[in-house]
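Q: Structure for this?
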Amino acid sequence: MKKLLFCLPLLFFLGGCGRIELGEEAGQLLPVSALALSLQEDGEISLTLESIRQDSLDGGATPVYLSASGADLSSAFDNADQMLAHRLYLSHAQTILISPAFAAEQLPELIEYLLNRRDARLSIRIATARDAAPEDALRADAVAEEIPGVALSAMLDQRAKEGRLPNLPFYRLLDRYLQNEDFSLPALSVSADGHVQPNGQAVFSGGVLTGFVDPAQDTKGSDLP
Amino acid sequence: MKETVFPRWQGALLGLCLLADGLYLPISGAAVRSAAAAGLTVFLLTLGWLAFLRKRNVDDFVTLCGRLGRAGTVLRVAAGGAAVIGVWNTLTRLTAFWQATALPGLPRLLTGGALLAVAALAARRRRIAVCMWAYPTAWLCGIIVLVSLLVTLPDCTWHNLLSLSQPPAYDRAAFFAPLGMLPVILLCQNRRSLPSTGAAVRGLAAGLIGLLFVALRALLILGAGASVLPYPIFSAAGVFSVGDFLQRGEVIFACALVLAECVRCAALLTLLWPNGSKKHVFTLPVPLSGEQSASS
């Protein structure tokens, strides 16, 4: 019996808890809690990542931000990796904020990139920043949480459950996108006092952003990016 | 004393072997239908084999081969060949799964060797020990699969049920995957003193229902997205999480199916190595009363 109990933790290893890549241990990974992506005027992709620094065991977590850019998503992430002794780890990321320009041109690339990353979750939510840069929305102070990205994710989850924002985590977005169906992503903006607030929906048709719908509107708006 | 495999152990083994395909099934409406058809085929073939044993009044495949003389030897060699193919199939697909998901840095030769070693350690105690351990393992796997199904229920998009009726009519990969467990059927016993048809029906029904439910869950959650994910049944189990604490629910789910694969591999090895290691022969301490009355 004791032998069996000793072997029990090995079950988790069988299924993949012990995520071993040669030369890569848990301590060498930098967990990302949220990220923002935007398309710059020169066509480069700008990436801002939020990670959590745990200063002490009794709490005291603080967000840290890292920005990098690249010609495409892959090189932007590679460039961010190059700035660290760690490797970026997306398994804890729950939210991706994208700019309207990025949504209009790069959404298929983002979908493909996330599919190719083993550490990206299928439950991650993508939201569109409206009237604000996604980097600014990501860094905006949270009211009830210490980490803005975590607060953002909780807010998106809750509003989606209430039906006030589209409930479209990545796995549902993928389904709609592959079936060439129209879909909407939550739109977020930064309020006058510097907090993130829901601001309608970004409407996509054929995988391309066609406009925004205001919170009060029921039909598609013509507010093109 | 004859080696006695209790019917419920046998039923558990059959159910687990059917469930073991859950990690690799492609997911679409046609795939779910084809997996169901393959499961029913396995079901009917098993019942046919058990009825055949009963009719010929033989206990199991080994006894049957012993009665057939040279033809029996040919049959045993053929069964051994099928078992080798089955073990090879398990090794290739499970090591590919590990490399794509959990252990990308480890060579497949190493993970395959580890799996084979575990299966051989179980198989050296012969069929009876593998079947006996299949029983609690089946309960463990069943509970894990059931909990995994329940917690992901809110994430299902019920509209995706419509894709069950969409063409094509048939998915070749989904149909042939469950048929890979057919050699395991040869391990079944069906004695007059210990009829095992009922337990086999229950075990296979549980395995088939489990397999179909996890496939259906993947279809309902992922929809068309299942076609671009390498292991959709595994991925679909991972959409459930509790905040940042309980993530990667697919890991626990995969444990259940990996255990089922290990049991299947060990069962197939016992076809190749029926006498096991003499040091580790397992026998029941007390003969069954049914056996005594049958022999008297």
